[in-house]
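tl;dr need the bound structure. longer version: we got a ligand (zinc ion) that a collaborator sent over and nobodys looked at where it sits. i said id run it. heres the input, straight from their email, havent touched it
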Amino acid sequence: MEHPWTWDQDPPLRWLLVDEYTGDTGAALGVCAGIDGLFAEPEPPPEPERFTLVGCDPAGPLREALQAASAPSGDVQARAWLPAVMLDPVHSDPVPGGCQRYDVGCSCMEELFDVEVLGHRPSIAGDGLVDAELRGRLRILPEMHWPPAHPPEARGFLLHGQGNEPLGSCRSTIGVFHDRPFPVEQPVTLVGCRPEEPLLTLMRRRSARNRHLQATVHAVDAAGRAARTYKVLSAVVIGSAPSRLDAGLLDITLHGGFDEPFPDGAREIYDLWYAGRPSRRNLWAGYDRGLRHEWAGAALFHRPHQPDRPPGLTYDLDGRFVTDIEGFYCAVGEAVNGPGGYFGWNLDAFDDCLRGGWGAARPFRLVWHHAEVARDHLVPGYDRPPYDLRSWGPAVTMDDLLGMFARAGVTVQLR
Ligand SMILES: [Zn+2]
């Protein structure tokens, strides 16, 4: 969207806060030179934990993994491993309060993932059952479901794997349900801020409860164009003072912050977009997977809204730097939509782009140059993207991508 903040301003005002959640939806709260806390060192992935499935009657791959873990020798590690173990509680009637049924399972489910099966012993529960020892991670989605400190009311758990295959059952668990401290919120300061009326009103309120703001962050470029990012600031205004950058502006301190700030390294990407759209391809090629992901995100946020090019065209994908799936998303974005172009930044989004409406109308032809790079790197296995625990799972392979192109009616020529 276009905004009126295109005056010659020093320092440049680069971040626009828009309230899209309350009353006057879409109201600009203010624009600022910087937001301390918008970029931060990413949290390290959680350490693996020890879990016990008590009174376990294993089935399928879990049974095989337990046998492999007990085998005296051989390739034990490779076989005694499972991508995921879902714990699906078997509730009595009535189900506990807050429980929501899904097609498979309910909202009380927990997921262990990247699970190493260490071994088993006869269960304290008897009945020929075993207690299975695991080492893995609990999948935590802070915005949807924080794991409770106590197990749900249940007679036991049905166990299943990532593709819903049955893994048997257990009666209870050790190590899954306990207090897990919430991550410490990083303090946020709006630096060099020019508040608009809704924010000024909020700042004048006496009670902290009434000074809560929730706003999406838009990146404003040198030409005054604002691109909405997915970053949401949720915080209470604590105080304000004349800015250290410019006495005509304010530094506004907040309590609260961002669920997931940009990683520090992404500053460079947003500095580049501030100056204008990238003019060359492959400026992302030197980045690691995490920053390539941020590159594709910035491409999404800045994408121009314009009609698709007509069907029947040929696009060239420079495959030289497709050494990971994030590199593929960057490369296919530039193949279809030019330097800084976007054409998906995860598998679902890519699938969506293939259906049209994202730059290229079907059918089209794609010439994939230096396809051998992706052939060597996008291979089957278990993938741990460094930036997003929820996408830990089966790796996206080159064959997966070629299958998706084929189903979308895109002819791919590998060079
Ligand atoms: Zn439930």
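gonna send this back to them w/ a short note. The chain has a mean pLDDT of 92.
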